[in-house]
Write a structure and sequence with these properties.
mainly alpha; single chain; Histone, subunit A; 5 strands; 14 helices; 55% helix; three-stranded parallel β-sheet; Rossmann fold
Amino acid sequence: MLGPTACGKSGFALHLAARLPFEIISMDSAQVYRGLDIGTAKPDAVERARATHHLLDIAEPHEAYSAGRFRRDALMAMDAIAGRACAPLVVGGTNLYFRALRDGLAPLPTADPAVRACLDACGDTHGWPRLHAWLAAVDAPAAARIRPHDRQRLQRALEVFALTGQPLSRQQARRPQPLDWTLLVIALVPQDRDALRIRIRERFELMMERGLLDEVHSLTRRTGPGVDLPALRAVGYRQLARHIAGELTLEAAVEAAVAATRRLAKRQLTWLRSEVVDLVVDPFDGDALRQCEQAVERFLAAGEAGPL
């Protein structure tokens, strides 16, 4: 089940899991991290008691969690769920993870600590925009889709080139066999974009009331104040970490977080328009849950593997 942030995917998943033999697999690049709870809208203990969830709290905040690792973890979970005569319900808005799961990923070299240390030192000395320029010289397609300050992705693209002598973009074009599962792909696409924008603000304000700033304080105390930590790149966390570092007032950080979340939702919706999906429903439509439930029931009755 795909959809932009704050559209209600988790609620839909819980509804379906309460009525059909599902276990839920999170497809969220921030919910994998321990300690990122409030700001990721991670299912709480009550919600986890209502349905079995997978791929929550499986990485430390300082770890880099990749699309490749997600695919491996998700496939293991899917096989285990099928072994229990249930179906996997994969839910989230991390589009890169969806494509990795569905289409597979090209085989790439594993991380090399020495190369990464060298790249980190170069980035700290010369600045990551300079490394972006180096990447553009050896792999223009990769540089075109990676932002100059995206340290993690820049590091990986340059690391792959250093280890193999071939551009990352060329290697990614060689994809393995796609997923050996039949999928029902459901997309939650709000028709009222203003309503989504309002919901994003209201949800973030509620997160602040529930202690999101304290959560970010706890993360920075436990892992250090660096905003470049993988976990602190998540929307909302990055902006509040900048407030804690003295770069933004709290009010400015909140406004920046809301704006960044809205931009994320816009990117997710733009991406969904390019995807082939089986069912598109408006999550703000009162009939949306029934539409999803009926589609899934037909899918499972046909003996298919499980929805996404």
